[in-house]
Structure formats: structure tokens, C-alpha cells
Amino acid sequence: MTVNALPATTFPGSDRFYALLDAAVALGEPEATTDALRAALESLIRDPAVQLPEVVRTPVAGHYARRELYRSPVHGYSVVAMTWGPGQDTPLHDHDGRWCVEGVWQGELDIIRYELLETDGERARFRTAGTLRAGSGSAGSLIPPHEHHVLRNSHDDAVAVSVHVYQAPLVRCARFRHDGDDWYVREQCCLTVDPGN
Prior knowledge:
The protein has about 200 residues and is mainly beta. It contains two helices and eleven strands, in the order H-H-E-E-E-E-E-E-E-E-E-E-E. The protein has a six-stranded antiparallel sheet, with no helix packed on it. A hairpin with a 4-residue loop joins strand 10 and strand 11.
């Protein structure tokens, strides 16, 4: 896979961090890879020797922060740390057909999963497929076509940090704007990263 590489951001424990991710992604098959990545992230989050860069604990006013830590030149995956200020969330969105593994590094996030029921042009009908509160040390995965969800820091006084490993750099996705009942309108969105890596 050809990808524009991003040099690995270094931090205490980063060698172990990237080695475990490389080993998981090298498995190739989506379910085996995402299972191994979930286990790797859960292990890394609990390892006190692994300390993400301090900047990832700093929220950005007005939106959750996306800070890309790495793009693998060999395996093609990317790693993004997200910082969630109090009350910050995503709209309902997809991952542009890529698998993803998400681990909560600090705090808690509410994850609301949606099942796509039907489409009609740029409109889509969804049903809520479950809500869970993920705490620090937990990790989950999305494998298309089951990739639609909302992430939210429901706390009004705490910052949350999550780490996302994407099959390939996620530079665009579809966001879905509520359009009455179970219907949403699909809107293409270009994703950016925040400074501070």
C-alpha cells in the first residue's frame, strides 16, 4: 500500500506503541487485525511506561481536536489522538469504508452506534444500535459496513483522550444531518488535523 508517510511522533514508550500496532496490522485480515489492535491498545493504555505527548491532553475550543501521530509507510495505517473537551462530540458519521480501532486513553466517551437501514440518493435511514460508555483502558472496533456512530464526551468538567488507528489515513468521511424521523442527509466532509503534533 502506498501512503504519504508521517514520521512517528516520539514519546515515552513510543517504540513499544508502534511495534505492537505494526504487528497487529501485519496480520492483514480485518477481523484478526482489529482484534489484535484492540488488545494492543488496551495493553498500551494500561502501561504506565507509555505516555502520549502532553499536547494531546489540551482541548481545542469549539470542536474535538484531531492530532495525527503517525502514518505507516509499510502498512498504510494511521494513528490519530483525539482530545474531547467537556461536552464535545461528533455528528453521526462513517469512516469512508475503512476499519478503525478506538481506545479511550483518558476519561470516558459515550459511543452511540447506528445501523444503516436503507438509502435513497443522499438520504439514509438509521436505527440506533446501542449506546455504551467507554472508560479509560477500553477499546472497540468498527469494520465496514458497520462503521456509523457518534462519539461524545458527556462530562461537563472533564477532558477525554482517545487514540484511533485507521486502516488508512482518514482525510474524508460522510457526516449525516438529521432530516426528520429516522432519516439523515449525507454530507461529504474533509477532515483536518489540529496543530501540536
